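Re-running the complex after MR caught last week's input typo. The corrected sequence lines follow. Everything else is unchanged.
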Amino acid sequence: NAGVTQTPKFRVLKTGQSMTLLCAQDMNHEYMYWYRQDPGMGLRLIHYSVGEGTTAKGEVPDGYNVSRLKKQNFLLGLESAAPSQTSVYFCASSYSTSGTDTQYFGPGTRLTVL
Amino acid sequence: GQNIDQPTEMTATEGAIVQINCTYQTSGFNGLFWYQQHAGEAPTFLSYNVLDGLEEKGRFSSFLSRSKGYSYLLLKELQMKDSASYLCAVSYPRGSNYQLIWGAGTKLIIKP
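Corrected-run output:
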C-alpha cells in the first residue's frame, strides 16, 4: 500500500517548456487535488477532481491543466512554463469532499522554472 | 475571502509544552484540521475538530471554539523530532463540495 505517489520528485524547466506531473493513489479515493506550496503562503488549490473523468478549477488554475482518465491517476500539466510557476507541487487524495475527510498527500515535486 | 492566521515561527525547549494558535473566519465553517509538515516532506494529518472542546491524542491535543473562530494545537513533552511546520486548515463550502483553506503554517523550532 504505497498511498499517494508523485513523479518526478525534482524538475528544472526553461521558460516556455511543457511538462506533466503524475500523481497516483492506491486507496480507491474518489477525490484528488493538486496544490502548490510557496514560501510564506498556505497551500493553494490549483485543480481538483471529484471522480474519474471529472475535473474542476481551484483557487489558482491559470497556466495549468489536469486530467483524470483513471480513478487512481491525476495528471497536472504545464503547457508553457513561467518562472512564477516555480514551486513545490503536492498531490492529495481523500475518500470524499464532505469537508470532514482527511486528505493524504504525496511526497511533492520541486519544480524550478528558469 | 477566508483568512487563516497563525504565527509564523515559535521556539520551545525540549521537554516543555507549546501552544500554536489559529484563527479563522467563522462564516461557513465546516471543520478544522491540523497537519504536521517536516522540512522537505509532505503534510501529514494530526487532528480534526468540528465541535467545541478539546481532542486529545497522546502528546498532542487540539482545541476548538466555533463561536470565537479560534483553535490551538497543544504539544506536550516536546521532542526534537517535533521540529516541523504545523499547518492549520479550515473546511468551507465551495459550490456543492467543500474546500480546505490553509494557513501559511507555524515553524516550530525545538532547542535542547
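None of the earlier attempt is carried over here. The interface with chain B takes residues 4, 40-45, 48, 50, 58, 90, 97-100, 102-108 of chain A (CB under 8 Å). The first strand of chain A starts at residue 4 and ends at 7.
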